[in-house]
Amino acid sequence: MNPALYAASFRRSLLHWYRKNGRDLPWRRTRNPYAILVSEFMLQQTQVATVIPYYNEWMRRFPNFAALAAASEHEVLHAWQGLGYYARARNLRATAIVVTQKHGGSFPRSPDAIQNLPGIGRYTANAVAAFAFNQSVPIVEANIARLLARLLDLQIPIDTSAGRAALWAHAAALLPLHDAGAHNSALMELGALVCGSRPKCEVCPVKRFCRASEPLMLPRKKARPTIKLQTEHHSFAFRRSRVLLEQSQDRWRGMWMLPRLETAPTGCMPLHVSKFPFTNHRITLTVFRHTAPAPALKSSQRWFSLAALSSLPLPSPHRRALEAIIPRT
Ligand code: SF4
């Protein structure tokens, strides 16, 4: 079916549903490109319900590009703490610095110029162009990808270049010339609320346009890399009500964590064991008490009072480990 033949009636059904069912989310009440960019960065890989309190607090602490550009990396990582994927926070701050220093504080309007900013790809650039500047550009994120794959009954994996091209082409074919912001929000919302992992086809407003005969089988994706198991050992050194921490240089660059150990100390039981996922790894975190005399400090290590811990950027697995260990110390 040629989308040009049904795009107008598809859009009418979609918007009619969205006006009645769309959620009132804080970033949908604004056309401010900064606020929209913050929400888009936070929503990558993270659920709406998790993002809302972080978004509100972030906008209170860093209300505009200038405030974020003036903040230290330490403050920014601390505010992002718990959301994970910290490269997003670093890129958001780097973008704020570029906007402030190179664009005179004004966010560029063209999707191509937006894509030149740190950490911004096609989706985020088009999302800001559509939601802040109401430009008629398509967007394809996870919810829209799932919805479009089902509407098209797309049998090729959506994480291949052919699959991505098919989704972006269909998103462009459905796009209105005006009010693309509302149209794109409605597509996302339908993907999130109706065409989710368990599609509610019986209440779907675009059911008559949908070609999927087995929606649960869609979207197709390439085989996932197998999950790798990994164990990481860390030490807990506690002296005069102070904890020794180490600034990470790799996975959580800039954040503070329990000092890493090359190997588990022989004959010792860990103080704390927990598991957490990281990309395609399932990591077991073990923490051992440091019982020897105070260790010689490396340049990346510092002692912190217990009171200072709440204002430090700490990765969630290490914050949880400290919260479990300190009351027992
Ligand atoms: S009919 Fe079902 S599978 Fe098709 S778009 Fe609607 S919810 Fe998704």
Note down, in words, how this protein is organized.
This protein has 329 residues and is α+β, with helices and mostly antiparallel strands. The protein folds into 2 domains: 215 residues, Endonuclease III, domain 1 (Orthogonal Bundle), CATH 1.10.340; 101 residues, Nucleoside Triphosphate Pyrophosphohydrolase (Alpha-Beta Complex). It is built from 12 helices and 8 strands. It has a 4-stranded mixed beta sheet with strand order 5-1-7-6, covered by helices on one side. Strands 2, 3, 4 and 8 form a 4-stranded antiparallel beta sheet that branches. A hairpin with an 8-residue loop joins strand 3 and strand 4. Helix 8 packs across helix 11 and helix 9 crosses helix 10. The longest helix is centred in the first third of the chain and has 19 residues.
Quick structural overview:
This protein is α+β, with helices and mostly antiparallel strands and 329 residues long. It has helices at residues 3-21, 33-43, 48-61, 65-70, 73-80, 87-102, 111-115, 122-133, 142-152, 161-174, 180-193, 316-325, and strands at residues 228-236, 238-239, 242-247, 256-257, 260-261, 272-278, 281-289, 301-305.
